[in-house]
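thought: fold this chain, then report.
action: predict
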Amino acid sequence: MAIAREGRICSFCGMPGGPGTDLPLMGGLGAQICASCITHFHAVVEDEAAIAESRRAFPWESMSDTEVLAVLPQILASAEQNQQFAHEWVELLRERNVSWAEIGRTLGVSRQAVWERFARKSGDNGATA
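observation:
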């Protein structure tokens, strides 16, 4: 199973990117970042005043209700993308014949719990393997 970057969004700005778009995405563990955000965050990390400012307040503290509402769908899209990555990683592990029990141990849950969370959506009904 290939874990694809098609249809992904930047986890930081919410812009769609990946192959076939003008916005390359990089990353892993569910988080994806575009070149524009890398440039922005690099500039912040290299600027002592920006670092000091980032330590004083969270961005949402200065945002209006309208701005916070506008960001909410992006937060949910990023969360859904991370859930999709989790499903893809579990599917990858199952294709490598890693047992539900081992996946469950890794996640700190029972074999049944991990199977209920991931197998029904992936179509993997191998409950004991």
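thought: worth noting. The chain is about 55% helix and 10% strand.
final: tokens above.
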